[in-house]
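Hi V.,

You were right to ask for the full record rather than a summary. Here it is.
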Amino acid sequence: MKVFALLGLALPFVAAKVSYDGYKAFHIDTPEDFDHVEAKLQDINYVSMACESNHKGFDIAVSPESLAAFEKLGLKVDVLHEDLGADIALEGTLSPYVSARKEADVGLAAAALPDLSYFNSYHQFQDHLDFLDDLQAAFPSNSEIFTAGNSLEGRPIQGIHLYGASGPGTKPAIIWHGTVHAREWIVAPTVEYMAYKLVEGYQRGDAKVKAALNSYDFYIMPVVNPDGFTYTQSGDRLWRKNRQRRSSSSCVGTDVNRNWPYQWNIPGGSSTNPCAETYRGASAGDTPENQVLTNHTLSVGEAQGIKFYVDWHAFSQLILLPYGYSCSAKVDNLSKQMALAKGVSQAIKAVNGLDFVYGPTCETIYQTAGGSNDWVADIAGAELAWAVELRPGPGGSGGFVIPPSNIIPSGKENWAGMLRLFETF
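Predicted structure:
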């Protein structure tokens, strides 16, 4: 999601945990005069949470001391959180994942699928690694764990490689990245749920799943910004970027999804301000995380070709196609991609009734420079390169901070969308 650093909010490298106790979160409608509304907020102490498509609205969390002044502005708002800190506390009750395989000390051939109770709560970073290990152990002849590289702080950027009867590395690739924006907690378990369904369906003999795994190699990486993700649990729940420090600024972090080395420095699609949420970095591809992702994606693409790429995000319920860097440039197979995205959107809606809007990124939401799907489309040569924004919808209850009860519904609806896509490639 694009967020506006209207406060220039980017915290110094400190260990203290940021408190949002007493902050009240609002969705502000700005159908015609975004800049005018933004100007009204200059004297309000708030945190910018997300911007709706085409500047039609945005979400903010107002500090307790500014609530009275904010309410006097008379803006058209919907309340998202009465007390953001209280909702974070509820959401952030992390249940440790206990690996049944490790507890029983069983061999790989005897391993069972991870229990679905994993998806009843959010988890720490290590739990996500353990879950992938257990999923691989349950599917030992058709999967492998891979580490594409390490983050700035040395955490593994890891994934699971799933494949069918002909073995690994022989078919076009499907690549899924998740959690490049650290605060988007719903993303990793949603991606993991779909990985689970691939394994479970193949073992069960589901014809659609077997056809997908026998036709494509899946490279699934649920957490590609592990430092930022870890910091959302230890420091600032609303942190977006990585944890890279620059000698020129006391502000921390680069937006890894504005750092891809393609159309990186075009005006309007990112920020040159190190304190901004969309800070693009000092040079194209200068974050360790982006270097890991580009190297791995190029390696897979050169060896196998890339059929389909998704950068999974939250929130706003969107299916975003190339291009983000320009509203006039058109990807060559746009009509095909639009037809496929329509089918995915319809399949998603059939599950829980949620509408996912689809279209080229720049036209559908806003301009983005140095974004993942543009690079994967034009540099890595993927046939399809999308970004998908999960639930809730724009201005929907919760935003980034939503109860873990959303995980399985999110997984089910997006799994339905992916199954539709696999059938209609």
